[in-house]
Amino acid sequence: MRAKPCGGACRSARALNTGRRSVPLALLLAACSGAEPPEPVSLVDHAVWETGRLEADPQAAHAPATIDCAPGTYHTDGLPPLDTFEVTTGDCNFLTASQPSASAIEAGDTVHLIVWHLDLDATLPGPGHVAVSIDGEVLWEVTVEVPSRAQLFDAEVVAPRAFARGATVVFHVHNHGTNEWNVQTIERR
Q1: Element housing 155 (H / E)
Q2: DSSP string, 1-59
Q3: Inter-residue contact 189 to 37 (CB < 8 Å)
Q4: Each residue of 10-60: pLDDT tens digit?
Q5: Which of 42, 88, 111, 146 pairs as cysteine with 120 (C-beta 3.0–4.6 A)?
């Protein structure tokens, strides 16, 4: 059995209920209700990403005339629950990876993402771009100048609308140079 976050403080607070203290007391009691935030639910399984479905990617207009992305340039790395989907851009100039969402998302739900890249390097400077979208709606994206130092992006975004279980989740990466991008977490909180 899990203890309530306030323990005995909730019982003590109830004993203090007077007319003057009712509003602050109501806030304290609400915090002591024992309601816990829901457990995070992963929206993706890194073992089932499919590549090449440009029609699912809102970033498709950024695609080069020739997409060169050999199967060995993207893969699952590590073991669940700490596995990632990794893309090495030296031999992959544009990647769209997609899969059905493992869970529904309600409008206003928090979607938590963890994405990172190692040091980004290229002969000539330019941008690197990564994005996560669901059913054509870009939830999160970032553009990074290449070259740059390694970065971790730990982001929480609010779902702008509801998405059904099975909605198409897209992880998109493009940049130039030989660089590594990883997505670890796309989950509903």
Answers
A1: strand 151-158
A2: -PPPTTTTHHHHHHHT--GGGHHHHHHHHHHTS---PPPPEES--GGG-EE--GGG-TT
A3: yes
A4: 333 333 334 444 444 444 444 555 667 779 999 999 999 999 888 999 999
A5: 146
- Chain-centroid distance of CA 77 in Å reads 17
Closest CA to 115 of 185, 163, 169, 65: 185
Peptide bond into 40 cis (omega under 30): no
For the chain, where do the domains classified as CATH 2.60.120 start and end?
A: 41-188
Q: How far apart are CA 182 and CA 166, in angstroms?
A: 23
- The pTM assigned to this predicted structure is 0.79
Q: String of b and e for 54-81 (b: at least 16 CB within 10 Å)? A: bebbbbeeeeeeeeebeeebbeeeeeee
How many helices (DSSP H) and strands (DSSP E) are in the chain?
2, 11
